[in-house]
Structure formats: structure tokens, C-alpha cells
């Protein structure tokens, strides 16, 4: 699956310095960093060499200059990288971050010493300095992340991976603190499982915009097949997926609904949606909304069914971490007698990145109660083998918190003869995971993403958002 995140990220950069260490180390550091940033596609916001001693930060006055620069670019900066070419000044780093007030993730890096360069003229002592800087950040209440290795040169491959993952953490944190989710319709009466707290979400920067389903369906019913907007969306739908045996009049129904949902999202500047489906749409409008939801998710505007607001929030978070679409799935069936495999399923709303054999079809299970002719718009397709990150964000209203679980596994090519959108997942200690899901009150819905991003999500959720996280399979 292709990575859809292409925009350059801007990082604030603080180069720590201490006057009794060689100044030339700061100058060399700038050159090392620029090479690493160019490779990673990062735009640095950092002091010029002539603004302070080689652009480093040591004194309170230098901290003020760096903080002022960061404030000037606050709208661009998604994270801060603290670099220690030598021991650095612990207070200078902490004061800069305090004065800037950015409230963004911080990554702390320190240079390694060379065994043959431990003389007074060339030693760094950044191993020790990093501990002091982190101690001060802890005292100041500033959250921060660490590189994989305690000390690492910017040219090291592990630092390149650290930078890439840190940028992903920054994307997740920035996105979650500002996300706007549209809740279309009421929660289906039979689905207590998707209840959530708007108030707890709002406390964490997550806004929910509600609208009645009748408003959406009423606006859709006022459109005709001859309206330009309907013709335009019909063309988009036909270009998106083979339509199979779906009648033209049902495709028009789907297109009309798609127009109104598109307008609703634009009017309220929404990043994601959760839409009532089961069974009001079929009974009162005559089609499924799965195709529109799939198109939105494919275009990085995730959409979940059954008004699962925290489900679509999870989709959005995973999308931010990986740069690729997510899908809302049911933990649905055992896979024969294999205790580490599970069937993932939904009527058919997954982004087509998961469905190489995508086709617009019907929802046979739903059709048994509302008439299959009223369920056109569901998608059918099988997800092939790929990496897997899975997880779920929920509000725990009794505790007044947001909690989550995450983990990694693999999607497989095991035989699966059924309908809808479907996949087989292999997860180590799946039985233990299901015990956790059941005992801690999580939903039957989970989110999948074709990536390995559980560590990124844990760092964003737990360290920066302050959420309670269970990472399945991780060392505890």
C-alpha cells in the first residue's frame, strides 16, 4: 500500500552547548544535521550561526532568542529536536522549551564519543549531558522522547529511523489534538457497544460535530440524477470501483448521498466521519453508504459505520502514524482451529487500498431483514497478505479516561470463502488479546492498518496524549 504522506515536516532544533567544551563540535553538528534532514525531508527551524555562538543554546539570553524564533514559526513546527554535540546546558534547553510554549513532542539526541578522542580538546561527554537535560525536562514537566541508542551520530541508520518515527509521532499528536469528527445520525439502538463520551474527547482536543440522519437523507432526496453534482460524483464512483450488477438507479442513490456527505464535511471542516447505517439507511433511503465511506477513507478522510466515533478516531490516528488508509473491522470469526488466526470482516466499507478485487455489491446479512435490493453500495473484496497494526481507542466513561490497545501481526493469504470485505489475521497470543478486549470493556470493532506502527502509536497515545495504553505482545 502506498504511503500518502508527502508534505515536508518542520522541526524546531535546539543545539545544546557548554562553554568549556570545544565550540567546533557545534559547527560540525550543524553540517551533520543538515545532511540528516535532507535525507529525511525535514525543514529545520534553528538559530543561524551568527545569532548565538555557532547557533547553539547555552545562556538564558540564547534561550530567549531560540524561543522567539520558535514562536514565530509555531504554526509550522510539529516537534522539537534537541541535539547535544557536547554535554550541553541543561537549563538552556529546558528554558527554551518553556519560553516557546509550543506543547509539541520533543526528541533528545546526544553524540557518542570516540575512544581515541577523550582528551580535553575533543571530548564530548554528551552521554552524561543527555541524562542531565532529560532530568531538567522531567522537572519542568516537559514530555520528551528518546533515540533508540542513548548516544547516536546523526549519520547512523538508527537515527534516521528514529527521526522518521518521531515525525510520525508528531503527526499523530498534532492530528489528535485538533481533529474534527462528524457524527451522522444516532447510534443504532442495538449497538450499545459504540457508546462514547463527547465530553472526555473534547477535553483532549477532539471535537464531534453532530447532525441528524434525516437532515442528510432529506437533502439527498431533493437531488436528481440530472444535477451536475450528482453526475460528477457518479463518475467518481464508477472510476473508483467496478459496479458489478448494481443497477444504475441505485448508483444514482449512492451518488446523491455522497454529494450531501461531501458537502457536510466541507461545511464543517471535518477530518473524519462516523455514519449511522444499520438499518435506517436501508429502510429509509434504499442503499448502503459503504462505497462513500470507502472513498473517504481512501482519500485519508476516514469513515466508520454505526456512528462509531472512537472507531473513526482510531482510524485517523493509525492513518497519521503510517501515512496510509485504515479500515474499521469486526473481530468476527475463529479461523478453523488455529488459535492465532482470526477472520476480520465488515459489510463492505474498507478503503480500496485493502481490496485489489474491489466491487460494489450488496450486504447479504443485512439484506435478510431489509431486502437485499436495499443494500447496494456495500463493497466486496479480499485483503491480501500484508503487515498489520491493529488497535482501538475508547472512552472509559466510568473512569473518566481515554484508553487504547494496540499491537502488530500479519494479514495472511489463507483461504476464506465468504462475502463482504474480509481478511485473515495472524496474531501471537490472540487468545490473551481477546481476554484483554473482553475483560476491559472494549468494542467488537477494531481498526487495521497495513503497517508496523504500534510503537509510534504507543508513544503518541501514552507519552503525549496521556492515555492508558495496552500494547499487546510488547515487553511490559
TrEMBL record:
Residues 344-471 form the L-fucose isomerase C-terminal domain. The keyword Isomerase applies. Pfam families: Fucose_iso_C. GO terms for cellular component: cytoplasm. It comes from the Bacteria. InterPro entries: Fuc_isomerase_C (IPR015888), Fucose_isomerase_N/cen_sf (IPR009015). GO terms for biological process: fucose metabolic process. GO terms for molecular function: L-fucose isomerase activity. Keywords: Carbohydrate metabolism, Isomerase. This is Fucose isomerase. The lineage of its organism: Bacteria, Pseudomonadati, Bacteroidota, Chitinophagia, Chitinophagales.
